[in-house]
């Protein structure tokens, strides 16, 4: 006769699996996470930050095709395979959109691409500029599936690379908020008295300050940059975790298993970490999923205001900022595509949070 596990973890996992939108959102988040880690593998433009600009083909519609002439550079870029995989390729070559080209003897004559019915500039160079005098291998037809932005960069590549910032800021911010929030909430709820009053005063003061305003203040104090935003967002999200942990510990510390642990002579640190916290983590997990979504929205707002990730780094919020004016110019997709990316990722985390809440509800 087979033994069927009826542990709370198994029951919660079974309930979560039965939630279609929870499982679907979890798979979607895992897919975005995979794309975030290996963004430069999937991106058509594998240069660092997908920042290869072609001003001649700026703000072109999705599916735009053009012939691209790559002029090899004499500069050597010493870069390891690991660096190329996770941080992009240092591209010293020059890419030129062209409309036509021809080879006569040792001379390559090409006409630069020009839009709006204009005639491109015709230029000539020696074939000796190319390795092995092979021109054909350096002229390729390039397709921009999502079109190009106002600087002529591949929008699909920018979206894929931009997923990295939005995804990782959630992890870093939630990690920081958990460390601070669980510590402050545990101390306040377990010891009570003056310690609880002081910590609650700090929590209430921090809670009263608008989140975005506090993030802006911390960001300006630490300076503009990538990691500064991560830290700033994390330092503003711990109060919610602390309040939840404090309330859970206040009710849990009167339980019989805590009284038994005290009778056995265990110290306060062991009672909190080994006995109380493992039994109150369900609501903390749910609020962490919501904080993950909130962190993505805050980072997008900061990037939109210009104090988040700085150029040339790709960020969904910065992409909306650069192109929101194009909504009334018939090219709204430049702002809508990154906006949909933000919306879908935030929605996925909220659905995961709802599914976890239902699965971890012991009364259900």
Describe this structure in words.
The chain is an alpha+beta fold and 364 residues long. It has two domains: 64-144, no CATH class; 155-359, MetI-like fold (Orthogonal Bundle). 57% of the residues lie in helices and 10% in strands. The protein has helices at residues 8-17, 20-37, 39-42, 81-87, 155-191, 193-208, 211-222, 226-236, 238-252, 256-263, 268-276, 281-305, 316-323, 333-359; strands at residues 64-71, 94-104, 107-112, 122-126, 139-144. The chain has a five-stranded antiparallel beta sheet, with no helix packed on it. β2 and β3 (107-112) form a beta hairpin. α5 runs parallel beside α8, α5 (155-191) packs parallel to α9 and α9 (238-252) runs antiparallel to α12. The protein is elongated. The two termini are 28 Å apart. Mean pLDDT is 87; it is low at 1-5.
